[in-house]
Design a protein that fits this description.
single chain; Lipocalin; eight-stranded antiparallel barrel; disordered N terminus
Length: 405
């Protein structure tokens, strides 16, 4: 038996749908408006409007309200909100932001069977690319997938910009046919275009990618090459049998994969691996990867001048785009004590590999092994230069970088 409250709700719904449809006034700002540069899709929900601006492969969220025949609101780009105003005159919508005016036309709805209008991005960078750390997908709809993260991308000249997670990353590059090189201050990342048939094959090839295992980092590539513990191998795969050949001979592994976990059974022994997910994830990674915003040289310097002499210390580490790091430290002191002059000097060097999450950096060092440091991003209180703070120790960028936001 239907309840009285539910009956009232149903009755009110029927009453709404029973209204004369010609008596309902059309909303002036709901719909799709566009010109050659941008497209605005917006709809009214209660007293507010929400939607999206599509511009150059970017998708910019919109929120607005209508007051006295004028639409006032904001759109978000790169984690920052910008205000705009819009007015409607016939089929024209005039949108103004920061002194720039865009005149948009109301899109005319086509028949139900019509194919939706899309604006695919035509650029030679569109496609799937193999990197030493996994696959990068640059899609024609303006989206990009790097590791497990999805972003928006645009290209201007020889610079590709990735946006997402409230951050923006600009990467200069060189492109020659199927070879694409991303350029960072302290290194290069080489990408090779994946042929369409290879890309389709790779979708079911769960072993391809970056892994962490008992021998350290492991990289398995689509071209049949693999690097395990710094040693180069060639491999072939048939069903769940993986055959690897290298300087220490040939061996066959029976492979089992469950999500991001992989096990190899070799001669009765089991080796376990965990996928190094989110490699090259712009704006942060939950499980560790090579984060482009951290690539560069970072230094800590101190000088002490007292009555007996002067001592100084400098320590710099360089995070490279290929997942390796270099460390150099030096210290020295000069002065006089008990009437005699003295001088000391020492230096140290190290290297290895690194990965990072949003709040930690893990290094695999030749000298100290595996260490994980607590990571904070701060800006220098005087210069505004970005810093990396590792377990409380502050390291300032040695190159020109924009402050952290």
């Amino acid at each position: 038996m239907i309840s009285f409250v539910r009956f009232l709700l149903l009755a009110s719904a029927v009453a709404v749908f029973a209204q004369n449809p010609l008596a309902v006034s059309a909303d002036a700002f709901s719909g799709t408006f566009q010109n050659e540069q941008l497209k605005l899709d917006i709809a009214r929900r209660g007293s507010e409007y929400s939607g999206v601006i599509l511009l150059g492969g970017q998708s910019l969220p919109v929120k607005a309200r209508a007051t006295a025949g004028k639409l006032t609101g904001t759109f978000e780009s790169g984690g920052q909100a910008y205000s705009f105003q819009a007015t409607r005159n016939g089929t024209k919508l005039t949108l103004t932001t920061d002194g720039v005016t865009h005149v948009l036309d109301k899109a005319v709805a086509g028949p139900p069977s019509a194919t939706p209008v899309t604006s695919p991005v035509t650029s030679p960078v569109v496609g799937q690319w193999q990197t030493p750390n996994g696959i990068v997908a640059i899609n024609a709809d303006g989206s990009a997938k790097i590791g497990e993260k999805t972003h928006r991308w645009t290209v201007e000249g020889n610079v590709i910009t990735f946006t997402g997670n409230g951050e923006s990353l600009k990467v200069p590059f060189d492109l020659a046919g199927d070879n694409w090189t991303w350029k960072f201050p302290d290194g290069r990342l080489a990408l090779t275009r994946i042929a369409a048939n290879a890309a389709a094959q790779s979708a079911g090839d769960g072993v391809v990618g970056a892994w962490q295992g008992p021998t350290g980092n492991m990289q398995i590539n689509l071209d049949g090459s693999a690097t395990i513990g710094g040693v180069q191998y060639r491999y072939t795969q048939a069903a769940n049998q993986l055959t690897l050949a290298g300087p220490d001979g040939m061996f066959v592994a029976t492979v089992q994969i469950a999500g991001d976990n992989m096990a190899w059974l070799i001669n009765g022994k089991t080796l376990t691996f965990q996928r190094a997910a989110n490699v090259w994830a712009v704006g942060g990674a939950a499980t560790g990867g090579i984060l482009p915003e951290l690539v560069g040289k970072w230094c800590q310097m101190s000088t002490l001048n007292n009555s007996t002499g002067v001592s100084s210390r400098a320590a710099c580490f360089t995070l490279l785009a290929d997942g390796s790091f270099q460390f150099a430290g030096e210290s020295g002191a000069t002065g006089q004590t008990n009437g005699a002059a003295y001088g000391t000097a020492s230096d140290s060097n190290d290297g290895g590999t690194w990965t990072a999450t949003a709040n930690s950096i893990t290094s695999t060092s030749k000298k100290t092994g595996v260490r994980t440091f607590r990571l904070e991003k701060r800006n220098h209180p005087k210069t505004g230069d970005p810093m990396l703070v590792l377990d409380g120790a502050e390291f300032t960028t040695a190159y020109q970088k924009a402050p952290w936001r």
